[in-house]
Specification:
With 244 residues, the chain is mostly helical. It is built from five helices and four strands, in the order ααααββαββ. It has two domains: 82 residues, no CATH class; 141 residues, Orthogonal Bundle (Helix Hairpins). It has a four-stranded mixed beta sheet with strand order 2-1-4-3, with helices on one face. It is rod-shaped and about 135 Å long. The two termini are 20 Å apart. It comes from Pseudonocardia xishanensis. InterPro entries: CT398_CC_hairpin (IPR056003), Oxidative_Scav/Glycosyltrans (IPR052376), Zf-RING_7 (IPR003743). This is C4-type zinc ribbon domain-containing protein.
Length: 244
């Protein structure tokens, strides 16, 4: 393949731009904010789960308190009714039964009030857990927002840099012969560096030192002959820096 030395040298500009685009793509994938964001999202999920668990437990206790209050009110109402019946003058047998029922109601009310007090103490203690869970969740959500903002800023910076390099690439491509560009792109499509500068016996694409016999053939090749690195098969561009 033939290509003017100026076109081959221009290919180095394209390779440099493409290398920068590759580095930017790697930086995008390797942003530390990605891992930070995943960890922050997990903390938010854990915080929400803990808060829901605490709220569910609090709701259960609140229902127990309401039920106990209702039962206590029922016992008190029954007690007042029985006392009113006793005060109204009734037969001895009925009075004895009512007195026995009042004693039973008193024990029942005492037990219910003890149970209510225990549940209320549990609810009070759980209030601290609710407050703590709420604070933990709020902190996790704040951290998530901060990490998201840092991630978005980093991505915006990368977007701007990539847009600039893409414009640079678009300006270089028209300067290159179609056949030379096609060979270059073919190598890049295979995940390789498309072109590199020959300098100090090393290929600028793979950075390996080249064999003297091969370098002799490169030196003997015409200036417009397109040569390829014997190690990585990249287009090997010769300039005044190549030392041939």
């Amino acid at each position: 393949m033939k290509a003017a030395p100026t076109a081959q040298k221009r290919l180095l500009d394209l390779a440099q731009v493409d290398a920068e685009l590759t580095r930017l793509a790697h930086r995008r994938r390797a942003l530390p904010e990605h891992a930070e964001l995943t960890a922050a999202e997990e903390r938010v999920r854990a915080g929400k789960d803990a808060l829901v668990e605490a709220e569910t437990a609090a709701g259960d206790l609140d229902r127990d308190i309401t039920r106990l209050e209702r039962d206590i009110d029922g016992v008190r109402a029954r007690t007042e009714r029985d006392r009113a019946l006793l005060a109204g003058g009734i037969g001895a047998k009925q009075a004895q039964d009512l007195q026995h029922e009042l004693e039973t109601l008193a024990r029942r009310q005492s037990n219910l009030e003890d149970e209510q007090l225990e549940v209320m103490e549990q609810r009070e203690a759980l209030g601290g857990n609710l407050d703590h869970a709420g604070r933990v969740l709020a902190e996790a959500e704040g951290e998530l927002a901060a990490v998201t903002e840092r991630r978005d800023t980093a991505i915006a910076d990368l977007d701007a840099a990539e847009a600039g390099r893409t414009r640079d690439r678009a300006a270089i491509v028209p300067d290159l012969p179609e056949d030379l560009l096609a060979v270059y792109e073919q190598r890049r499509a295979g995940g390789r560096v498309g072109a590199g500068l020959l300098r100090e016996r090393r290929c600028g694409a793979c950075r390996l030192e080249l064999d003297r016999t091969f370098l002799g053939r490169v030196k003997a090749a015409a200036a417009d002959e397109v040569v390829f690195c014997e190690e990585c098969d990249a287009i090997l561009v010769r300039t005044g820096e190549s030392g041939l």
